[in-house]
Design goal:
By secondary structure, the chain is α+β, with helices and mostly antiparallel strands. Helix content is 30%, strand content 28%. Pfam families: PQQ_2.
Length: 526
């Protein structure tokens, strides 16, 4: 009887053990754990490179303003640096936590993994949605076609791409941190290094993609002395026929200016310098079209040549933005631009005049400002006199002074002379008159002529004469320099200009380019 009961108890116990096994708390790694770990290590390298590239884009490149309807490169650089840094911190923590464990449990360990996975997934979704809502791909294409290349755009886009792909690759590690134990430190380091190499290559391409010099055809020349303008001329020395500007609306004519060792021809695409004795090209600075468009064009009529013809400063337009580029007229070297780190980049370029080879004069409503012509550095400021304000008259410049017209009070016109070397007020002259009788200033042979109402004029050749020289009635003509007479004709409907330049006198025939097939003809006489 006792044996039977023992046998039943034993059988019952055996049946219970085999039918209801206890659940395990261990989480298996799976067959692809090693591959996931290697991909996560590669993604860690991408993330590290992406964050570094984003920081460079944000702090190591110059910001450029584009249309508000486009994605802003600076915003995406900041986005990639902050969110990429957050994902990178989670990834590093996942590597450390996964390698520190001896086993993975479905309890406490998995709760942390779910939180980490959710954070990485949230970052990834946010980056994708933000890129889509801001039209990042189309904005990138449009900005590259409409604006000069700048490094912040491709580096910001590259950093965003690296952060997005890196986040995708580290997701499996965040979801199961124990996969970190399936690869040795050497293999993990090698995969991370491979990711860093890919990120570095992408970064190099991004920086090179922001180099605007690929859109510029710039050739320079050797230094030389500036020859004098001939006092007499008799024979034809050279003849140039420059091709037409057939691409409307660029058929707007070109400017020919005396500068350097000869003359400059300036068109919508840039500057070309020629030797005044032979007509041979010396240097040029030309901008190539980008995707069929001219992203930055020369602002016609903006070129200002210094008094000794050694420097020319030009204004270029890109949409609503203006850029000033200053050249050495002899060599063609770029001396400085308004985008450089100098004093000149903080002011507008409107109202600029040039003096000799040392000073550029900027006129504002409240002052005249002098800048070093070769560096753009600020030299002096001459404030407007008390109770006076600027007028529409453009200042005129002599060898040693700048003359401007001010309106003082409600009944006085004031002509002020400012020393161009120091900014000191060297003289002034007041003349009563109504607001409709503004004096007009002109320059003839370094002599200033002030034209007043009722056919009166004032003629001074030095600032010290401004306060004492009497105002004359215009009963005798002004002494002017005679225009050279040259026996040369132009085509019909052409604008003819005679221009004395170093080594020769030019006859410039600006043919009617509105018809789309006219040339610019230049003949040099010596």
């Amino acid at each position: 009887m006792g044996d039977i009961e023992a046998t039943e108890r034993s059988g019952t116990a055996v049946d219970d053990d085999t039918s209801t096994p206890l659940p395990t708390l261990l989480r298996k790694l799976g067959r692809t754990a090693r591959f996931k770990a290697l991909m996560a290590a590669f993604g860690t390298g991408l993330l590290t490179g992406g964050v570094a590239l984003a920081l460079y884009s944000l702090f190591g490149t110059a910001p450029v303003t584009v249309r508000t309807t486009y994605a802003q490169a600076g915003d995406f650089a900041a986005l990639a640096s902050i969110l990429g840094g957050a994902v990178l911190a989670i990834t590093v923590a996942a590597w450390l936590a996964g390698r520190a464990r001896e086993a993975d449990l479905w309890t406490t360990h998995h709760r942390w993994e779910v939180c980490a996975t959710g954070a990485v997934a949230l970052v990834l979704v946010f980056v994708v949605v933000r890129s889509w809502s801001e039209h990042l791909p189309s904005s990138y294409t449009a900005i590259r076609a409409e604006s000069p290349y700048f490094a912040q755009l491709p580096t910001a886009v590259g950093a965003t791409v690296l952060v997005a792909f890196g986040s995708i690759l580290v997701l499996p590690l965040a979801f199961h941190m124990g996969t970190a134990r399936t690869v040795g430190r050497g293999h993990a380091a090698s995969a991370t290094a491979a990711g860093l190499v890919v990120a570095a290559v992408l970064g190099v391409f991004a920086v090179r993609a922001g180099d605007d010099s690929v859109n510029v055809d710039h050739r320079t020349a050797a230094a030389a002395e500036i020859p004098s303008t001939p006092q007499s001329f008799a024979t034809e020395a050279f003849r140039l026929q420059l091709p037409p500007l057939n691409n409307r609306p660029e058929a707007t004519g070109r400017e020919v200016l005396a500068a350097g060792t000869g003359f400059l021809v300036i068109g919508v695409d840039g500057l070309r310098a020629y030797d005044g004795a032979t007509g041979e090209p010396r240097w040029h600075y030309l901008r190539r079209p980008q995707s069929g468009n001219r992203a930055m064009t020369y602002e016609r009529g903006s070129a200002v040549v210094t008094g000794d013809r050694s420097i020319v400063t030009t204004l270029w337009r890109n949409g609503d933005d203006y850029h000033r580029i200053t050249f050495d007229t002899i060599t063609g070297d770029v001396l400085w631009t308004s985008d450089d780190t100098n004093d000149f980049n903080r002011i507008s370029a409107v109202g600029l005049v040039a003096v000799s080879s040392t000073t550029l004069i900027m006129e504002s409503d409240s002052a005249l400002l002098g800048y070093d012509a070769r560096t753009g550095a600020h030299r002096w400021t001459a404030p407007v006199d008390n109770n006076c304000r600027s007028t529409r008259s453009i200042p005129v410049v002599t060898a040693n002074a700048v003359y401007r017209v001010l309106r003082c009070g409600g009944s006085t016109w004031r002509i002020t002379a400012v020393d161009s070397g120091t900014g000191r007020v060297a003289g002034h002259r007041d003349s009563p008159g109504p607001s409709s009788a503004e004096p007009m200033l002109t320059l003839q042979d370094d002599t200033v002529l002030a034209h007043f109402r009722n056919s009166r004029y004032l003629q001074v050749s030095d600032p010290s004469e401004l306060s004492t020289t009497p105002i004359h009635p215009s009963d005798k003509p002004f002494a002017t320099t005679p225009t050279p007479t040259v026996d040369s004709t132009c085509k019909p409907r052409a604008t003819r200009q005679i221009l004395p330049v170093p080594s020769s006198v030019l006859v410039v025939c600006q043919n009617d380019e509105s018809i789309g097939n006219a040339t610019l003809d230049i003949t040099g006489f010596r």
